[in-house]
Amino acid sequence: MLNPNLDAAELAERFREDGRIRIENILDESIAERVRSASRSDVPYEFVSHLDGKNVAIPSKEMANFDDAQMQEFRAKLMDAASRGIGFFYCGYMMARKLDDASNDNLKFLHSVFEYLNGEEMLSFVSSITGRDDLKSADAQFTRYTPGQFLTRHRDDVTNEERRLGYVLAFSKNWHPDWGGLLQFFEDDGTPRDAWAPMFNSMSLFDIRHVHSVTFIAPFAAEPRLSLTGWFRSKGW
Question: Model-level pTM?
Answer without folding.
Answer: 0.93
